[in-house]
Amino acid sequence: MRILIVNPNTTISMTEKAAQAARAVAGHGTEIVAATSKNGPASIEGHYDGAIAVPGLLLEIRAAQVAGADAAIIACFDDTGLEAARTLAEIPVLGLCESAVITAALLAQRFTVVTTLERSRVLIENLVVRYGMGGRAKVRAADIPVLDLEDNASGALVKLKRQIELALAEDGAEAIVLGCAGMADLARTLQREYGVPVVDGVSAAVKQAEALVSQGLTTSKRGSYAAPLAKPYTGSMQAFAPESAGP
Amino acid sequence: MRILIVNPNTTISMTEKAAQAARAVAGHGTEIVAATSKNGPASIEGHYDGAIAVPGLLLEIRAAQVAGADAAIIACFDDTGLEAARTLAEIPVLGLCESAVITAALLAQRFTVVTTLERSRVLIENLVVRYGMGGRAKVRAADIPVLDLEDNASGALVKLKRQIELALAEDGAEAIVLGCAGMADLARTLQREYGVPVVDGVSAAVKQAEALVSQGLTTSKRGSYAAPLAKPYTGSMQAFAPESAGP
Amino acid sequence: MRILIVNPNTTISMTEKAAQAARAVAGHGTEIVAATSKNGPASIEGHYDGAIAVPGLLLEIRAAQVAGADAAIIACFDDTGLEAARTLAEIPVLGLCESAVITAALLAQRFTVVTTLERSRVLIENLVVRYGMGGRAKVRAADIPVLDLEDNASGALVKLKRQIELALAEDGAEAIVLGCAGMADLARTLQREYGVPVVDGVSAAVKQAEALVSQGLTTSKRGSYAAPLAKPYTGSMQAFAPESAGP
Amino acid sequence: MRILIVNPNTTISMTEKAAQAARAVAGHGTEIVAATSKNGPASIEGHYDGAIAVPGLLLEIRAAQVAGADAAIIACFDDTGLEAARTLAEIPVLGLCESAVITAALLAQRFTVVTTLERSRVLIENLVVRYGMGGRAKVRAADIPVLDLEDNASGALVKLKRQIELALAEDGAEAIVLGCAGMADLARTLQREYGVPVVDGVSAAVKQAEALVSQGLTTSKRGSYAAPLAKPYTGSMQAFAPESAGP
Amino acid sequence: MRILIVNPNTTISMTEKAAQAARAVAGHGTEIVAATSKNGPASIEGHYDGAIAVPGLLLEIRAAQVAGADAAIIACFDDTGLEAARTLAEIPVLGLCESAVITAALLAQRFTVVTTLERSRVLIENLVVRYGMGGRAKVRAADIPVLDLEDNASGALVKLKRQIELALAEDGAEAIVLGCAGMADLARTLQREYGVPVVDGVSAAVKQAEALVSQGLTTSKRGSYAAPLAKPYTGSMQAFAPESAGP
Amino acid sequence: MRILIVNPNTTISMTEKAAQAARAVAGHGTEIVAATSKNGPASIEGHYDGAIAVPGLLLEIRAAQVAGADAAIIACFDDTGLEAARTLAEIPVLGLCESAVITAALLAQRFTVVTTLERSRVLIENLVVRYGMGGRAKVRAADIPVLDLEDNASGALVKLKRQIELALAEDGAEAIVLGCAGMADLARTLQREYGVPVVDGVSAAVKQAEALVSQGLTTSKRGSYAAPLAKPYTGSMQAFAPESAGP
């Protein structure tokens, strides 16, 4: 089984960290293939970056599907482009936020997602509501620029731990979800330190991808995610015309 | 006051129809400026088309803002790219679906949105829920390809009327929302025929845009819609780097 | 276009302030007509005052409709009598709370309504939920008797600002809604001071009224708001018999 | 214990029917006192009738409280004026809809309310949502003018039974709530005929009133239902000035 | 009328306290019969204790029904086994939490439940949501082991009062619900002290039981609560085979 | 990795079918251990059977944990005893309904669960709501006694297919969830026949169990699922005293 981890941020070091987290939990016989988008923002911080990142992301998923990937994971906690990717691809596509919150919900009645920037907090709250966990999860922002997570000296970990402690003290959190792909390496350590489950989205998504593939399940092509209809695409988006989209 | 109507579908005849609907309701002193995206799909039918249409759409909004537009309207009922546009722009940005459902909610306790394709039905249902009208509105699809609305001989009107009649008979609809920019010309006729309010998203959005501008209100830049942070954008998306984004 | 602003509080100075706010945003060709209820409480503070204010309010709307008004606005943030007025009138009727929260929702993902008295807080929370914004808006009470807003020396502004500051600091508010007709004159100043959109219900309602009238839309008479049935009314309410109600 | 049944419809025969239903379930030592509003519509059908009925209704509750009533029941399934009455009175006030749906919820997971006119259907749906039963209850209208329930030859029973049968066949109803005070006499017969619990609002409200009084519980005067503040009332509403309102 | 109070905790002193509270509010002609489960945990603290307590509880309800009880009350605020009991019994079955929250909702728009242990807090929150009061009620835990309520010297009352005070100051609570059967004796005193309604679940359930019986209402046997189907039960659960279940 | 499948129905043939489905999807290195409860009903049909089945179920989970199981799956679609099991066990515990609906939600925006008996329909609807999928999933009952699924000649498959066809035609279902452990063998065939994803709860739960174990995640012991407190258990339930519960 081959699973694509595609980073819609164009920063390669983030991809590496996500791929490493993915490989750490991948099952026997699962190959993790990592790709970094070549077209888009260095980091996704809010709605604008997210929207611009989607075409480059879809390009990588399309290429990976042609090359034989069995599932794809979008390595950004905002689940950027997830619905478009599910429409495009024949293979299952997983998002980090969705995978992480359904995982946390198997472990705890109440949990808190700790993300990076305040501007992403409500965006993730809205995702959590859409995924049906609005009554069970809170979202906190730790005020960490995404790329600071690549830099050990940035004080990012201190800020992150401060929010975890507040989640335990004030939110009644029974588990923690790390709300950024770039935090994948911290989950085990924090879990040990705080004595509650700490869920990383990359790991969660890898296991959901494996789960779907080994059950012979893929995205429904009836209704919402029906394959794109053939039609002209113009200008710089010509390359995305769906008649050339997939198997 | 100058209001931009931007069509994220690259089909110019649709833009013309929307602009005409907009001008029909625009207030004294409002200038309607219409733009058609130059980069993207000929019509937006589902999540994939929608996602690819966004960058081209944002380009038009950015250009119009630089050129002095006071508000922008995204002329697609899926509210494609609405959150990204609000993040990018300093001027208010309106979506057709959001504008139409809040308008219908001022007129009726229960209403039905009639859209084009089944693949867009759940997408619009999800928008309706997000806009707080999930308990008040139903969504029906009339099985009309978007571009058929440009063609009088396509039988589209018959299908549309069939769904309106079912909405009145089975949904308890007290008003109807036309769920596609391409239906803008039909609202008045259908309202007369069925004796219930028929809301067109383009008209509704123009009036909401005028309302915001004349109240001196624009998108909050605190939190969710804070202006994009300066950062490198790579590949074909370089032109979208946010440091060159705003006025 | 003639828009009635009817104050269901019987205090004329409040009507004047609302009319002034209305005129400040009214479009070219819109005439604002103000009326003060002659029958009811000097101020509406809670459910009891609100219920008693309704018949006097309906009388003014009926009279204005006969006199040719194109729309009516109920100048009380509790949206007192809104559903009854929509049932009575053939012209559109707008409430301040409904108009303000749908306006704020076009500008911000999260916002806070600041109202006067604690006894009105839950009442407004319930309206906000009914209007579909329960997940997006918080409501705070500033502990200001309604009539104190008429008195510059009352310290009302200080209390109001205290709650706005708490909304920004603790609620994650991205915009503020002023939750009382008597605060209409403060919106622009507060918006400048706090750097977030500050929405006034009177202004918002005027623009919604204009929007509906210029779109040729009025309250649906199918279902919930069907015109009152002719029937005997007895005692002091005889004057309200619906057979004499219409235009 | 003395419980007031006040009919906000001014039709005395309806009051008699409600009082009879009340007496049939009243406990040992409970005296049922019936009053008919002297000011308002002959029957309440929709929002307008309901709003005009409230002052006359409140007058009766105030008088009964002064005369020593221990609790009051508003004998209209729309729960007309319920919140105002709770604000006014020191004694508990019960509504038929609220009492009936909480009773049905003790007996069944899913149930259907059958009311009279289509124009009241959504109004009751909204009440059901406000009382927390939106996911458990459906509402159907039997197309019966309220006063037809006073007339045995009107065919009202046939229409009512038709909707009960549809509720059982299509809604998965496990119990039925009769959604009009004028149906109180039919509950036992229908329950026997259909083999599911049939809840009458008058009976349910009497038992809730007794329950509160014998527990020493009454409406909270903290927050939402705090007693009306003393203030001038003008015009025909002068008699309602709250300084003369309570014991 | 004979009402069974069955304590699913096997601690007899708790049963006595509940029976005493029940008798204090029981109507003329109501006989309270108390039973203590003979099979299960000494106290129910969390999901595990609750699940194990159910069979012993059902045994007592079955026996009481055979012996002629008219209704049964499960004397544990977690509403342990309530749905199973309603399926088993022909007579109405009441839970403390459900009875208490619907009672509080008749008295106040917002209220707080104060329970014993943190591990029960979310369990009760989930019940409150299921009973439709999620938007109106908060739940607080006072950190009191259940059996400490049997011991006057345990400091339990101080902890309970601390949470009531916080509920009034921070939650906007307009009424308090005591969230444990073992607190039944404190309601009246606390109500006097804090000046807001204080609802005890045992009292509330007794009055709901009386209400249902005197209305001739019992659990629907259509759908969710249909009588158990005859079938083999094996091992230590043989005694529970439903063919021997009925009256 | 060793995963326990415990059947809370005491019918061994059902266990075998579930174990077979489990083994068909289990990953390399996963050992499936099946156990059948020795204490309880032959089949779980409704709330009563479900409640009585729990202690026998917990006994098996406790034994398996002591014997070294890494995760446990409760092989009943009602998720009988799931919360109690999570409280008891140190290892992760999965339910079929929860696992299946979160899996379906990764594949489709809207889906329908087809269960066996009408009496289980609302029970499963309530689970679906609790798991956050109330707005996305419908539940249908095929009127099949649970044990008929063990009998090829019973016509069960015809009834099941009838409901799947209705789900596709009327519910807008984009995927199907089989709502009974006894249907595990049918998923692949039905998926091929209807061309939409068909999710089986047993398979889904196995993959979720593997996912949690390989991520080093287990049920939070903070808050809702804290380990049972030591205390006396009496009567036939003495064997369940929690001081002997843990590893």
Automatic annotation (TrEMBL), chains A, B, C, D, E, F:
Which superkingdom is the protein from?
Bacteria
Q: Which InterPro entries match?
A: Asp/Glu/hydantoin_racemase, Hydantoin_racemase-like, Iso_Racemase_Enz_sf
Q: Transmembrane ranges? A: none
Question: PANTHER family this protein is in?
Answer: PROTEIN DCG1
Membership in a protein family: Belongs to the HyuE racemase family.
Q: What is the name of the protein in this document?
A: Aspartate/glutamate racemase family protein
Give the organism the record lists: Sinorhizobium garamanticum
